[in-house]
Structures are given as structure tokens and as C-alpha cells.
Design brief:
transmembrane, globular, peroxisome, peroxisome biogenesis, single chain, Peroxisomal membrane protein 11A, mainly alpha, PEX11, 10 helices
Length: 227
């Protein structure tokens, strides 16, 4: 995935240079090959998404339970559409309406990301509320080293809110990484659906950043946001 988006970004950066046309074409071909290969590797992910959806229905908190279950179910539908597109690309189902299935796949992926972001915002709001309550109930003469930064923050106005948000994300790296990954992944479907048009350079950069976050959470599981 990181290789695919790197090729997208590099081809966008050099495609208008006269002496780099052949290299840009090779990068685009490599990007296409990586995309097709990823579709093949994802053929079994629908089962994984359904198992994850079943697991998230057991969560005790209603908001994460709804958001994550809806995200996993729509992600499973995305993988179904993705598999159909792969069958089209390898010639096993030549009659498949590619634009229609691609549109369905993008919408499912987009909704799944929105549900993930809703869950992230719920986690942030919960921690913000805790921090505000802590600020209101603590004694004015009390200074704890762990909470010193929060004690300096006044929660009145946008500036105070942003400072408090910064402190919350700083103290919860898994939440920050999950938020960054979901926001980066959003650039692709926003462009494809015409909601917010960008360019392959932006999508490629966001894809690389999202992939690096994914690699980091695989290498260090404690940085992955727990369900």
C-alpha cells in the first residue's frame, strides 16, 4: 500500500517534466499493478470484517458498539465490491459495470471511515469532558506534575479548547494515530465521490502517511486504538 501511494505521488510530481515522461508512465504502471495485487490479497478480508463486526456487537458502550459495528459491516460490503472489481480486472467477469461497482465500493469505504471518525470523536469528547471536570473540581492550590499542563489551560473559548485538545491527543498516542489515519484515508473517497476534489499528489501523500501509521501500529501493537 505504501509502495502504491508512493508511486502515485512521484508520478504526479514528475509527469509534467519533459525528460521524465517514461519514468512517470512506469510509475503509473507499477501503481496499477500494486492496486490490482492488493485487491487479490484482500479477497478474504470480508470474512475478517464480519468477524470483527460480530465481536464489536459485544462492546459495553453503546456509541463505540454502534460506530464500530456499522464500520465493519460497511467495510465487509466494500470488500465484496472490491472482489467484483478484481474479477473484472483479471477478465473473469468482463461484463461487470466497473464505474457502478467502483462507486458502490467508494461509498461503503467512505461510510466506514465516517463511522471510525465518529468513534474517534466520541473518545476525544469523553476525555475532554473528563479533563474539564477535573479542572473544575480540583483545589486551586493543588498542582500535580502529571496534570500540570491541563491546569494551565483555561477551557474558555476556541484557543483554550484547542490547547486542551492538543493535550488530550498528546497523552493518548493510539487515539491520535487512529484519527490521523482515518483523516488521511478520507482524501481518496472524497475526491472519487466529488465531495472535495484534490489531485493524485494529495491523495498519494495522504496514502503514504496513512500507510506509515498502519505499519507503526503493526510494529508496536500498544499504539493501536483498542476496540
Amino acid at each position: 500500500r505504501a509502495t502504491q501511494y508512493t508511486c502515485m505521488l512521484l508520478s504526479y510530481l514528475i509527469e509534467h517534466k519533459a525528460d521524465k515522461e517514461k519514468l512517470a508512465m512506469k510509475l503509473k504502471q507499477l501503481e496499477s499493478s500494486m492496486s490490482s495485487g492488493r485487491k487479490m490479497f484482500r479477497l478474504g478480508n470480508m470474512v475478517h470484517a464480519l468477524v470483527a463486526a460480530r465481536r464489536t456487537t459485544q462492546l459495553p458502550d453503546v456509541v463505540p458498539r454502534f460506530c464500530l459495528t456499522a464500520s465493519n459491516l460497511t467495510r465487509a460490503l466494500y470488500f465484496v465490491c472490491d472482489a467484483v472489481l478484481w474479477l473484472k480486472s483479471v477478465g473473469l467477469q468482463p461484463d461487470v459495470d466497473k464505474p457502478k461497482w467502483r462507486n458502490w465500493a467508494t461509498k461503503c469505504y467512505y461510510f466506514s471511515l465516517l463511522m471510525n471518525l465518529a468513534r474517534d470523536w466520541y473518545e476525544i469528547s469523553w476525555r475532554l469532558e473528563q479533563a474539564v471536570q477535573e479542572e473544575k473540581t480540583k483545589e486551586k492550590s493543588f498542582w500535580d506534575k502529571h496534570n500540570q499542563d491541563l491546569n494551565c489551560v483555561k477551557c474558555d473559548g476556541l484557543h483554550g479548547f484547542l490547547l486542551l485538545l492538543f493535550q488530550i491527543l498528546k497523552r493518548h498516542p493510539p487515539l491520535l494515530l487512529d484519527l490521523v489515519k482515518n483523516l488521511c484515508d478520507l482524501s481518496g473517497p472524497l475526491d472519487t465521490l466529488g465531495i472535495y476534489k484534490t489531485n493524485p499528489g494529495v491523495i498519494g501523500f495522504c496514502g503514504i502517511l496513512s500507510s506509515l501509521v498502519g505499519i507503526l501500529t503493526l510494529a508496536s501493537p500498544h499504539l493501536k486504538l483498542k476496540q
